[in-house]
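User: My advisor, Dr. K., asked me to get a structural model of this assembly before our group meeting. I'm new to this, so sorry if the format is off. These are the inputs:
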Amino acid sequence: MSTAPNVIEVRNVSKHFVIHKEKSLKERVLNPRQSRRYREEFRALDGVSLSIAAGSTVGLVGPNGSGKSTLLKTIGGIIHPTSGEVLLRGRLAALLELGAGFHPDLTGRENVYLNASILGLSREFTDRNFDAIVDFSGIGDFIDTQVKFYSSGMYVRLAFAVAVHVDPDILLVDEVLAVGDEPFQRKCLDRIRTFQKEGRTIILVSHGMDQVAEFCDRVVVLEHGRVVADGEPQDALSVLRADFDETRRADLERQREKQADDVPHARFIGVGATTLADQSLRPVVGPGEKLTIAMEIVADEEVRDWTLGVGITTPIGTVLFQTTNDMLGIELQPLRGHHRFVLDLPHLALGDGDYTVATSLYDSTGRELHAVPNACQFSVRSAATSRGPVAMTAQLMQTQ
Amino acid sequence: MSTTTAQKRAERLAQEPLRPAEPTYSLFRGTLANMRDIASRRELLGLLVNREFTAKYKDSALGFVWSLIRPLALLLIYYIALGKFMGAEKNIPSFAIFIYSGLTAWTLYSEIISIGTSSVVNNSGLVKKIYLPREVFPLSVVGSASINFAIQLAILVAATAVTGKFPTGSRWWYLPLSLALLYVFATAMALLLSATNVYLRDVQYLVEVALMILFWASPVVYSWQMAGNALAASRAGGRLLEELYLANPATLIVLGFQRVFWVAGSDRPFPADLGARLGTALAASLVILWISQRVFARMQGNFAQEL
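Assistant: The format is fine. Below is the predicted structure of the whole assembly, which you can bring to the meeting.
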């Protein structure tokens, strides 16, 4: 597969939106100069270039308004870029919205044909696959009922069933995988995996980081219309995670400023993880080694009844382990001035990989005083016999 | 098995040239590419026409009969109010047939333009989410309006047979000519106006008003004779006014229809060389259609963000 051709080439694409605040003829004709002043330019995409090889599954992630959907629509030919160009190979299908073009007054059957045709399927193809579509949707006898009488779940399931029977080389998916009940979701995800095995290229926009990490072999992070990270899911997602943490911290800071008076000032000024053998900034923990997390806290005024929390997460933010002094049954003295704490983790039951330490301070009411979600990192390199973040000893034997 | 599927796909894709994600805008090649694009989606066009038509009267008991009742009610109003009360009937033999032949043409014309104008905006859900040649929306309006028209035309033909004045001979030649003009011009307008309506919603209201004026500016409920006399009698540039009046495609179309179906009015004056006028208008409309399509293609790039 190393010779896989590029199916999508995005070349230096920019998209500017002009936001008109007034849209009536009167306003434009009467004072054209004024209307120019009311224009506001917004850069949804800013010089984005990407090449995507056939057969890859690419996740597009980023905060709201970062240009993910605009990029997807540009690739889909729905939006014309202001500058730059998008080149494609092969058949493209876009699942930007399920049931786009469903007409409530038509029956399920009529809508299947209409929707299939909108997605570019021929009548014969739909005829041949009609039973499979109905079967996949699980709609059964309701297929000849008008769609307006469907429950929202049924509606979406039928729409998805049509969509997955499209036979594209490139599939664009925008936040539509999380539909239906759990068995149906599983069915959808299985279908996506089949698509991957068949060498179809999938571009996925999602806020579900776990989903992206699970499916994609490449992740592109967009921010303010620019590509800020592009590569292995783990790396790219940790960039995004750090970003979200930064946003959240800024939010908290702002909140704190507002209620500055009644919240005591206590914060971490340093957190580090070390082992006996490795005192570097990002230690590597070998098999059977003890991990020590050292924390330095400063409090401007006295803080009583406080709680110290320490957690370990994966780079994309899944919490693996969390503890507090309360859980450990340890009373802490009131804070004032400079303090140091050390948490020892002698049996680190973690598998190979990179991990992040998160620390937090709470007051007696459970209010967060300070949190550092990405306090420090460490890696685990063990003689692992397994995959995944949890390390366990395992024995396999034949019993019969 | 699965790897070979994947490999085959990769091999096939490697053979394909890269193509731009959206249609080209070049003047002549663009037209051809657009037409191919639309032609490849004709099945969808058929389904959209079907959707417009079936969904419209889905839950009504009388169904599509309603689409006949409207023009028939109009016919009745004009026949009684204008024909009987105002006495237009005296100067126009078989007044009902006269009105109905004009009305049939006018209904198709105005439906294509007025519903066509809002067609892209009405389908904004699709325009924003899926790439289609957007021309299919105004074109599907042309299709569904044609179904109504076909039924009305059948009634008109039946009515001429019942009244014993079935059109015969060379007068039929006016039908394809005026129909072609109607379709080409109305489609051109629908394309142009539906695209502009996306940017400026005032257009759809403007079109309503314009169509109302144009209805009375075409000889649907009065005869060309009456209008022609009045125009010629006006002091300043009567000849020019008459030419202006006849430059309206709707007028020519209505006159063409009357020339075919209004057998009783064969001896009445019609504008000189109506056939030539229709032909000229058709040629001009074809150019307008092409320009409209180009404008539409140019404007559709920003549809998704404007809706």
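One thing worth pointing out at the meeting: Chain B has one domain: 25-306.

User: Perfect, thanks a lot.
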